[in-house]
Amino acid sequence: MSTGLLAGKGALITGAASGIGRAAALLFAAEGARVLAADADLAGAERTAAEIAAAGGSAIACEADVTDETAVEAMVAQAAQRFGRLDCAFNNAGITDAPGDFESLPLPRWQHMIAVNLTGVFLCMKHEIRCMKKQAPQHGCRGAICNTSSGAGVVAAPGLPHYTAAKHGVLGLTKSAAQELLALRVRVNAILPGVTDTPMIAQFTGGPDSPVAKQLAQALPGGRMGEPAEVAEAAAWLCSDRARWISGATLLADGGQVSR
Description:
The protein is an alpha/beta fold.
C-alpha cells in the first residue's frame, strides 16, 4: 500500500480496538499509513492489526492505558522507533457513562471520566508533541495531531456533565496546542463526532435493534446514526498533507446534527 492519502506516514491511533478507532486504523492503513493500533484492550488492538495485515497493510498492536503517563510515553516511543518518525496521531480513546442528575454524580465517576477523556488526551498530546518537535519537516509539517471531542464539546449532552466538560476541555487543549505550535509546524485539530454506531453506543442503547436505538436514530439527521468509517474519514483527512493549511480547527462530523 504505497499510495493513498497517508502514503508512507507513521500513524498512532488510540482506542483502536473498536468503534471509531478501529475504523480509523483500517482506513489510515488503506490510505498507505503504517499504523500503531493502541488500546487498553490488547486483544482487540491485535485483532485490528491482524485485519490490517490480512488486507495487505502494515500495523502493530500496542497495549496502552492513556491515563498512565509511563504507558503513554512508551507507546509514542514505540511508534517513533518502529516507523522512524511519528507523522500523525489520532487521540481517540474515550468512554461514556449512563446519564443522571447533576447533583447525584459521584465524584469517582467524574474523576474517571476526566482521567480518560481529557487527561488521557493531554498525556498523548504531551508526548506526541515532544516527539514531533524533534523531527525534520516533511511537506512543510513536522506532524499532525487529531483529537476526538464530540458534539458535546459544543452542545451539552443531557445528563452527562462530566462527559460534556471533558469534551469541551479537549477543544481547549486542541486550540491551545495549535496556537503554541504554529511556528514549529505541528498541526493540531479536533473532530466532533455525532451519535455514531459503535459498541460504546450499543452498550448505552441496548443494541441497534432496541427501541432506544430506533428512537434515537429517528431523531438524528437522515434517521440514522453515523458510521465509524464516516467519522474516520474526517480524521484521516486532517492528518493528511491535504489539510496542511489547517490547524486549530474543530470539525463536526455529525451529519448536520449540531449547527453553530
